[in-house]
């Protein structure tokens, strides 16, 4: 069964990365994945099997160190992950962002990993490179192998 990759994407980078990851998985022996995009209109739904979350970073104020964070545009994913028993099935978080944001790089994914008690299994910038795709695929595969 393909493992669900839940994600949110405002400008398409995370969506593009996940498409590349799924294409890679389909040509490679090992686990396969299914993309599940969450947006503001997605009804809350009970996840019934282990899944990963892909989380881009959108902050509008706050440095995450000593004055908090103001998260924008990704809140629908946090709400979905928090729904019912969904936190229990979350086995890993992948963060994306832009390193120009320095200490705030992939901060939302780090916060979700802590909030939902799941490991941060990797990160990539923007749409990611071909090397990132392989690296994240390997990290997801290892997490799945350790979970099952
Ligand atoms: C308003 C705004 C705020 C952002 N804040 C951060 C940030 O704090 N840390 C970070 O790593 N990236 C930040 N980014 C970069 C995005 O996370 C990055 O472009 C990501 O690839 C967007 O994913 P998406 O296209 O799937 O929505 C920000 C981008 C925008 C437009």
TrEMBL record:
One of its GO terms (molecular function) is FMN binding. It comes from the Bacteria. Signal peptide: none annotated. This is Class Ib ribonucleoside-diphosphate reductase assembly flavoprotein NrdI. InterPro entries: Flavoprotein-like_sf (IPR029039), RNR_NrdI (IPR004465). It holds the Pfam family Flavodoxin_NdrI. Transmembrane segments: none annotated.
């Amino acid at each position: 069964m393909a493992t669900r990759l839940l994600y949110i994407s405002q400008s398409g980078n995370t969506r593009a990365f996940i498409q590349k990851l799924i294409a890679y998985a389909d040509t490679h022996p090992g686990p396969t994945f299914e993309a599940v995009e969450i947006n503001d209109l997605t009804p809350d739904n009970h996840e019934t099997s282990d899944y990963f979350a892909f989380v881009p970073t959108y902050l509008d104020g706050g440095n995450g160190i000593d004055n908090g964070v103001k998260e924008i545009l990704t809140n629908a994913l946090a709400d979905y992950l928090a729904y019912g028993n969904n936190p229990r099935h979350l086995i890993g978080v992948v963060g994306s962002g832009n390193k120009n944001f320095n200490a705030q790089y992939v901060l939302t994914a780090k916060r979700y990993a802590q909030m939902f008690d799941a490991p941060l299994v990797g990160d990539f910038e923007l749409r990611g490179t071909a090397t990132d795709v392989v690296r994240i695929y390997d990290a997801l595969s290892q997490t799945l192998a350790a979970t099952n």
